[in-house]
Amino acid sequence: PDDISSDTLVLATSNQTVRSPENGDPDYPAVLGRVVIDATSATSYPVNVTASGITLKGFTIKNAKAGYASLRVSATNFTAEDLIILTPQSGADSVGVYCSTASVVATFRRCSIREMTGEGIYIDAGGSSFTIESSEIIHCKRGISLKNGSVTFDNVNISDSEYQSIYMTEDNTQILTANNSNFIACARTPGNYYNIHNSSADGTITP
Description:
Elements lengths: L8 E3 L5 E3 L16 E3 L8 E3 L5 E3 L2 E3 L6 E5 L4 E4 L2 E2 L9 E5 L5 E5 L2 E3 L4 E5 L4 E11 L3 E5 L2 E13 L4 E3 L5 E6 L2 E4 L10 E3 L5 E3 L1
Parallel strand pairs: 1-4, 2-5, 3-6, 4-7, 5-8, 6-9, 7-10, 8-11, 9-12, 10-13, 11-14, 12-14, 13-15, 14-16, 15-17, 16-18, 16-19, 17-20, 18-21
């Protein structure tokens, strides 16, 4: 389907584009007129991607349940464009985007993730590859936590994190590649945390 409005969205059919209805070019949605997925009454993930080849465009997701992610990606070849992910409900840490499935390939373009009580993006699975372009992650507990896999940044701003902009953990292969990007962390706890924390024996950062 092209147009969906709901408090919970499960994307389980492969190779579809789901976009918020807009007045204008659907490939470049404007903020005005977009569908807001308000998950105040939802009992699980507001958006759950379980099929490959999904493209999600132009939604705002807010008020995820405490302890859950606003967007869970568990299938490969996922693309998100012009998403806005906003403050979850109070309580246990909630993340903006959560990936727990191995070998997921995902691309985020022109997305904004703000005010998460946990990570903006949490990649918890082996071999996953994320590309983030022309996006921002602002005022989250951590910008990105990466256990295993790779992230490429192009024109990305991660700022005002409570702890690190980027947190690399465990001794698995982890690769960060950054182009034209800014990572400014620790605005709320200056001097207490590194901007980029790499506790992995195998982690690499380029440049």
